[in-house]
Amino acid sequence: MSSLASLRPAMFAVALLAVNAVPASVMAAETHQRFGYGTPATPEQIKGWDIDARAEDGKGLPPGKGDVNHGAEVFADQCASCHGTFGEGEGRYPKLAGGNGSLTADRPEPTVGSYWPFAVTLWDYINRAMPFPTPRTLSADDVYALTAYILNLNNIVPADFVADKESLPKVKMPNHDSFTWQDPRPDTAMKPCMTKCVDPSTLKIVSTAEGKDLTPRTSGPLDTMQPK
């Protein structure tokens, strides 16, 4: 009787292992399965997120078009309350026009006309972020028209300009050639050193971004919005 009782724990352990044991093939299959959260994105959902337009060549711009006159109407209805009737800015909202030749001044005005390097970037920003209270509510035609109007405010395109996926990438912005397309910052990547390391006292900076006019100066007179 005592020998039978002593076997019971061992028998229970074997039974427990048998219940919990899972073939290795099943375990391997389960590790590659998904957790079952969510559902695959539909083409319509992907299309809703795939809205970017490439600055250099306009890849990603949708069909549609808009001219300066229609852009003036949309601007008056959707944009003027923040950016002014002619892009001069209202309150703390940014200026969209003007600032020509000011980037090297003590108080530069980086507007669309004076600073931005690509016209397509203007379309892309308006399309994804404007109007400020209700972004993504403008049609492609309205965004094209607004882009044409703002470019015209900056005397970059004529009054009869029609913006579309073909014409917009061809617009050369006034400040395009003033951008550098290589990172001017020094390379600070260092491999970890565990043995035969360089003596830190012998290291010195041989390249720096200082003095290369990478950021505008702010030493000029304060604007009228600053408290006195």
TrEMBL record:
UniProt-listed InterPro entries: Cyt_c-like_dom, Cyt_c-like_dom_sf, Cytochrome_c-type_DH
Keyword annotations from UniProtKB, A to Z: Heme, Iron, Metal-binding, Signal
UniProt signal peptide: 1-28
Domain of life: Bacteria
GO MF terms, alphabetically ordered: electron transfer activity; heme binding; metal ion binding
Residues of the Cytochrome c domain: 66-154
Renumbered residue ranges of the record's region Disordered: 208-228
UniProt name for this protein: Cytochrome c, mono-and diheme variants
Organism: Afipia felis
